[in-house]
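Researcher: Last one for today. Full complex below.
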Amino acid sequence: MTIPGLFDSMEWGPAPESTAEAMAWLDTHERTFGLFIGGEFRAAQSGGGFDTRNPANGQVLARIAEAGAADIDVAVAAARKAQPKWQALGGHGRARHLYALARLVQKHSRLLAVVETLDNGKPIRESRDIDVPLVARHFYYHAGAAQLMDAQMPGREALGVCGQVIPWNFPLLMLAWKIAPALAMGNTVVLKPAEYTSLSALLFAEICIEAGLPAGVVNIVTGDGRTGELISLHPGIGKIAFTGSTDVGRRIRQATAGSGKALTLELGGKSPYIVFDDADLDSAVEGLVDAIWFNQGQVCCAGSRLLVQEGVAEAFTAKLIARMNKLRVGDPMDKAIDMGAIVDPVQLDAITRMVASAPEGAQVHHATCAIPNEGCFYPPTLITGLAPADRLMQEEIFGPVLVATTFRTPSEAVALANDSRYGLAATIWSENINLALDIAPKLVSGVVWINATNLFDAAAGFGGRRESGFGREGGREGLYAYTKPAGNRKPLKRVLPYDGIALGASGLDRTAKNYVGGKQARPDGGYSTPVFGPKGAFLGHVGTGNRKDIRNAVEAARAATGWARTTGHLRAQILYYIAENLSARGDEFAARLKAMQGGGDKAARAEVDTAIARLFSAAAWADKYDGAVHDVPIRGVALAMNEPVGVIGMVCPDEAPLLGLISLIAPAIAMGNTCVAVPSAAFPLAASDFYQVLDTSDLPGGVVNIVTGAHGDLAPVLAAHDDVDALWYFGSDDLSGAIERASAGNLKRTLVNDGYATDWFKADTQHFLRHATEVKNIWIPYGE
Amino acid sequence: MSEQSLTAPAKGQTGQSGLPQLHLARNPGMPLDLDWVRGVQANTSAIERRCASLPGRRSVKKDWQAAWLLKAISLIDLTTLAGDDTEARVQRLCRKAMQPVRPDLLDALGMGDRRLTTGAVCVYHEMVPEAVRALEGSGVPVAAVSTGFPAGLSPYKLRLAEIGQSVAAGADEIDIVISRRHVLGQNWQALYDEMREMRAACGHAHVKAILATGELQTLRNVARASLVCMMAGADFIKTSTGKEAVNATLPVSLVMIRAIRDYEARTGFRIGYKPAGGISKAKDSLVYLALIKEELGNRWLQPDLFRFGASSLLGDIERQLEHQVTGRYSASWRHAMG
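Model: Here's the assembly. Have a good evening.
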C-alpha cells in the first residue's frame, strides 16, 4: 500500500525482529545439539535425538539429543563430583559466579529473547520485555542470596544434586527459577528442559562456559518425559524440583515417595480473576489481557476463571469483548503482536477439543481479530454463561480461553474462587481497600494480586496450594526448598509396645478414649488395646482407632478451621494455659511416662519439662512468626503472609511419647492449623492423659483431635484423605514411603522422617513452624 | 449507537476546516448525572502499567511510520501562546500551518497533491484577527485560548465575554480553561454550570475544555472532570494549557479517552481529545496515535476528533520524514521554521 493509502487507512504495519543472529548461532552448532554435561557438550550415548520446531511456521530449527539412562548417570556423576567443591566455595565465591551469569544474560539478552520466541512461539515483546529481564533479575537476586547465606540461613546446608524438570511455557525463566536458588545454596544441578523448547537452555549452557562456571555445576540434559522420569528416579539426586502439569507432578510424587528426596512441585491452576462492582472496569479488562492472553494463556497461574459481580457483569463483558477484538494475533517475531503461536499442534488440538466441549447454553466468543492461516494459532476466546459444575470451569485449558461466571456477594466470590482443586494464584479488582484486603487472605492460593495480575519478581515467592503443588520459588521462602538442616542423621530404631497380661489394674478403671471435636469419643470399632509397662505391668486400655475414627476426627478438624482466624495473641494465651495445666500435673505425667517407658525419674521429668518449654516456645512464636514485606520493584508492597496449612495429620513419635506429640501439635496450632494426631502406638497413654489438659485449657473443640491406634492402620487413612492438607510422620514403623505415595492423591504436603531419628529434646520449633505455614504473597500496587 | 447523521456546516467560511460539525452531530450535553460521575474509578497503578507497556506493544515502521507521522501533522494545533507574540510572528506560524512540510518531501512521499495542513492554529485572543487573515481560504481553522487562560481566575463575566469576543473576531474553536477549584472541591454542579455557560457563549464555535490535569492531581479527578465537561456539552476535552508543571501524559490521556469511550457508549456522541504540552518528539506522537487507535478506534484519528496541542513537535516530525525519504538523518535547519 502507498503512503497516502496508509495515511487514509491508518492500519498497523509489520514490525519484524531480525532472526539473523539466532539463525547464525544455530548454524555455528550445525543445527545439532548435544547434552551439556561436566562443562562440555557431548552426544547422547544412544545417538538418539529429535527435532525442535518453530511453532509459528512448523520449520525445523535444530536436532536435539535425547538423553538416556547412561547419560543421566554420567550427568549425575558430574554434578556429584562438582558439588562438594561448589559448596566449599562459600557464599561469596558462588555469588561471584551467579553475578557473572546475570551479567552475561543481560549481555546476550536479545539473542536469548529471539531464540526463545523462535522455539516457543511467544511474542518477541514478551521474551524481550518480560522473560529475559526476569531471568537476569533472578540471577542477580540469588547472587545476593548466596552472598548472605551464612547470615540469613544459619544451620542450613545444600541438599546435594538437584534434578530439575521444567516446562515449555517459560523455558528460560523456569530454568532461572530452578538453577539460581539451587546454585546459590551450594547445590549442583541436572536440569531437563521441555522437549518442545530446549534451545534457550542450551544457549544458557554456553553462557555457563563463558562465565567460567566450574564444570559439572550445571548440567543440561535434553529429552522428553522418559528422560524426566530417569532424573526423578535417580538415586544420586537429593532433590527434585518440577514445574509442569498436575498429572505428571502426581506421578513424580509417587515415584519419589520414600526415597528421601526433597520435592517441590509447581503445577497447574485454574486461577480466579475476581472483579467487584467498584473496580476500575477498564483496567480490570486490560488486566485480563495480561492474565489470560499473556503467552497465549499457556501460563500455570493464568487468571483463567473470571468471576464478575452481577451488577457490572453485562457492562464488563461488553468492554471485554471489545478489547479482545482489538488484540493482534500473528507472527511472534513481530514486535507489535499481542499473541503468538501455541507451542505445538498437540497443544492446539487439546485446546480446540476443550472449547468444543462447551455445554449447551454457554456462549463462546472468539475474538474477531485476524488469525494467521498457517502455523499453530488459536484466537483469544471468552466463554460466558458457565456454571461451576461445568468441566470448563474446573479444568485447566492452558490456552487463550477465559471462562466466566458471576457472583452476588463477596462471600460468594470467595466460595466460587475456592471451589477448585487448584490453588495457585488469584486476582482481585476493587477500589475498596477494606474489601480487597478482606478477600485476599480468604482465597486458597499461593499468590494474590490486587488490582494487577501476573506480577513476578525474584524477591517474592511463587507457588501453590492444594493440587497446584507445594514449595515456593523466589524470596527467602524459596531458599529453604534448596537447603536442609546441617548435620548427619541417625537411623531410627523401631519401637514396639511391651507385652503383658491385661489383669490386675490397680484402682478404679479409667478408660482412655479418642478425643474428637473437643469430646471424648469411644472408638468406632468398639475394640480396645491394652498398654503394658516394660516389665509387663498392665497400665490401662486405649481405644483401637479405625478409618471411621479418622474420618470423624478430620471432619471435626475441618469444622474447627475458624481457629485460623483467631489472633496470634489468643493462640499464645491458650498455649501458655496448656503449659500451665500440664505443669500443674507434671508429676503425674512424669510417673506415667516412666511407667510406660521405664527409665529413671529424671528422664521422665525432663521430658515433661521440655514439653512445657516447647509449649512456651510455640506460644512465644504464635504472634511473632509473622511473614515479611518483600522488596519487589513496583510502587507497592508484596506481603508474604504466613497462613496455616489447614488440617494437619500427624503420626507422632514413639521415642518421646509426650514431648514428640507436643513438639508437633504446639507449632501447628500456634500457626492456626487444626490437627488429627495419632499418638505413639507403643506409649499412647501420655496422649490420652493430655486431652484432659486440653479440655481444661480453653482450646476450642476440634482444634486438636487424638485418635489412638496402630500407625500402620491409621496413617494410610490420613494419607489417602483428600480433606487433610498436610501429613507429618515421625513414627518408627518405616511408613514414610507409603505415606508419601498415598499423599499424591490430593498432593498433600508431607513431612516424614524417612526412617531417621529426631532429637526431640533439641527439636527446632521454627522448622515445624515453616511446615505449619504456607507463604501467601499478596501483591498490592498503590498510588493515586 | 449507530453512525450519526451528517449535518450542515454552521459557518460558511470554515467549510474546508474539518470541524466536527461537518461530520458528526455536535454533543448537546445531558443533565448532570452525579451517580455516574461519582461512580467513576481510575486505578493509577494499573493505568500506568498499561501506558508503560504500550510503546513496546505497538510500533510502526517504514512506510507505515511515514504515513502515521503525516497523519500526526494533520492533527496538530500549531500553537504560539507567549507574551511576546506579535502579528508578524503569528503570520509566520500560519504560513507554516498551511505548508508544514517541504514540498519536495511531500512529493517524494506521494502526498504532494493532498494539501496537507496542520489541524489548526492556536493563539491568544489578541492574535485571532491576524490568524484569521493569514489563514483565509486555507481551510485551517483558528483556535483561541480563552476564559482567562491559563489560570482561569479572571472575573467570571469577563471570561464569558472573552469567549464572545474571540468568536466575533473569527475564531472557529475556543479552548476554555475550567475552574480547577470546582474539581478539587468536588463541586461538580459548579463545574457543570460553568461549562454549560461557556459552551453557550461559544455559539457555533467548537469548545475544547482544558482540564489542566496537572493541577487536578489524581486520575480519578481527571476522569470525573472529563465526564462532567462532556455532560455539559464540551466538543473536545483537552489535558493542559501547556503552562502547568505537568502537562499531557499517557496515563492522563488513557483516563480521558476511556471517559470519552464511555460517554459515546452511553449517549452516542463522539467527543474529541486533545493532549497538549510536552509532546515534542515524533516518536511520542506515534505512541499517542497508537493509544487512540487501540482505545477509541480509527475514527478518532481525524482532526475533528483528535488534536495535538504542540509547538515543537512538527520540527521533529519533518526531520523524521526526510530521513524516511533519503535514509540520512536530517537537521532542523533543513526545514523552514514557523
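Strands of chain B lie at 76-79, 120-123, 142-145, 173-177, 206-210, 236-238, 272-274, 308-310. The interface with chain A takes residues 41-50, 53, 56-68, 70-71, 109-111, 114, 218-220, 258, 265, 289, 293-294, 298, 301 of chain B (CB under 8 Å).
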